[in-house]
């Protein structure tokens, strides 16, 4: 019998591990980790025992293990397991909490299993961005939003409310993104620009603009890409001129926001020229 697929990615930007198991049957005896585990079942049904409690976990269920939570699990439906998780070391969590709350107090998750949680879709998106090597900006933004949602709702640690701010700093960020969209931009750059923590920047910007900073940057890049494509610039060149990592990245973002691939969009204007 095949041992399935086991993949692990260490993200050097976020300093977290992303695990993926696909098609495995392995039983995991009782054990613990020295780090936080945030994971979800994609396929298969498992029996989980954690801290003396018993659970039946299914696709769509979110798993939360604090450091030193003793747990073990095994397959119970005769089928294989597909599972994804991220592992967050306490020192990484402390840095995140410093950004979010202004102190390094570590959260403790109150529940180990969240049945059919909507948070699974957010974790899946972050996991995919890590495994696909997406930009630091995008991954860090997703990571903070994921932690905020989990900690605010499912931990013993309250999150400080983001105070209403004047829009000067947000305008400053918008201007910076509009002037530097073709360059590599990070949350650190924007944090340094405003003097705000990265988390405070994310929350204040999103509240005022109704778009996250990364989505705002992505929209600027796509809008500039449209203009270049209208002028007949090839997609591979457009990608380099507008800050996308490659043509594939341009195509994915362009289609997401416009509904067409860059090549399909170009053909609109080629047809117009031919018919003149």
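-> sequence recovered:
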């Amino acid at each position: 019998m095949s041992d399935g697929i086991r993949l692990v990615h260490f993200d050097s930007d976020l300093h977290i591990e992303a695990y993926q198991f696909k098609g495995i049957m392995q039983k995991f005896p009782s054990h613990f980790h020295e780090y936080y585990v945030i994971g979800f079942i994609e396929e298969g049904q498992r029996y989980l025992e954690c801290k003396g409690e018993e659970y039946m976990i299914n696709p769509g269920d979110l798993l939360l293990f604090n450091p030193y939570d003793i747990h073990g699990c095994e397959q119970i439906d005769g089928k294989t397991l597909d599972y994804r998780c991220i592992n967050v070391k306490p020192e990484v969590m402390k840095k995140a909490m410093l950004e979010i709350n202004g102190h390094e107090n570590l959260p403790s998750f109150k529940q180990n299993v969240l049945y059919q949680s909507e948070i699974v879709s957010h974790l899946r998106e972050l996991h995919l961005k890590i495994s696909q090597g997406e930009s630091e900006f995008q991954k860090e933004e997703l990571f903070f939003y994921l932690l905020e949602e989990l900690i605010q709702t499912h931990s013993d640690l309250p999150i400080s409310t983001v105070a209403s701010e004047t829009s000067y700093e947000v305008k400053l960020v918008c201007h910076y993104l509009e002037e530097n969209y073709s360059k590599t931009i990070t949350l650190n750059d924007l944090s340094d620009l405003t003097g705000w923590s990265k988390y405070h920047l994310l929350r204040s910007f999103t509240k005022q603009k109704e778009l996250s900073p990364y989505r705002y940057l992505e929209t600027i890049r796509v809008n500039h890409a449209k203009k270049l494509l209208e002028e007949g610039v090839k997609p591979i060149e457009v990608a380099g001129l507008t800050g996308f990592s490659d043509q594939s990245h341009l195509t994915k973002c362009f289609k997401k926001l416009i509904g067409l691939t860059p090549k399909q969009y170009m053909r609109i204007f080629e047809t117009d020229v031919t018919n003149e």
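Residues 272-276 have pLDDT under 50 and may be disordered.
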